[in-house]
Write a structure and sequence with these properties.
Layout lengths: L15 E2 L15 E4 L9 H4 L26 E3 L2 E3 L19 E4 L5 H4 L5 H13 L6 E5 L3 H13 L3 E5 L5 H7 L1
Parallel strand pairs: 6-7
Antiparallel strand pairs: 1-2, 2-5, 3-4
């Protein structure tokens, strides 16, 4: 961010179980399984209602904010001093507090230790391909980087019907795993 805030709790990929909900939260209840997403959706702004954007006016990625929107205060502290939030998720902790618009409810039978990568890496790569690049059936697609995001982008290309997917990565060790994928 432009104005780093410290101390703060980092982390943005996770899976969890809702322990409690705040006043006015209707979409979730205690016991629901969720994935945090740092590009949340208020469901009311023009971006949230558009099929072409997910840059919510209220909950877009904001690395400088560090506090809850409702009252401008952190929900974390140590010895009375605030510890700031990170991109609205702060998942490197046993417990966190997240705006309801930054949580996606998932099937409770999905193993949280496996599906946690859906909260960023997989959704980012797959979404970039399916929602932004939108390759046509039979097209050739090049994917730069063969980590989780890149492999998800390649899967998006496959799902779109690309006839050729070219993987490019500086780390030659990733090619064998990418071929298996």
């Amino acid at each position: 961010g432009q104005n780093p805030l410290f101390p703060r709790i980092y982390g943005h990929e996770a899976g969890g179980i809702v322990e409690s909900v705040g006043e006015g939260v209707m979409d979730l209840k205690a016991g629901d399984h969720v994935l945090p997403v740092f590009t949340g959706e208020c469901k009311d702004c023009a971006h949230c209602k558009s099929e072409e954007s997910n840059m919510c006016d209220l909950l877009r990625i904001n690395t400088d904010r560090g506090v809850m929107l409702s009252d401008g205060k952190s929900r974390f502290s140590i010895e009375g001093k605030p510890i700031y939030h990170f991109v609205g998720t702060s998942t490197f902790s046993e417990y966190t507090v997240v705006h309801v618009g930054c949580l996606a409810k998932i099937n409770p039978s999905a193993p949280l230790d496996k599906v946690c990568i859906l909260s960023c890496g997989i959704s980012t790569g797959l979404g970039a391909t399916l929602n932004v690049a939108k390759p046509k059936k039979g097209s050739t697609v090049a994917v730069f980087g063969l980590g989780a995001v890149g492999l998800a982008a390649a899967e998006g290309a496959r799902l779109s019907g690309a006839s050729r997917i070219i993987g490019i990565d500086l780390h030659s060790g990733r090619f064998e795993e990418a071929k298996k994928f």
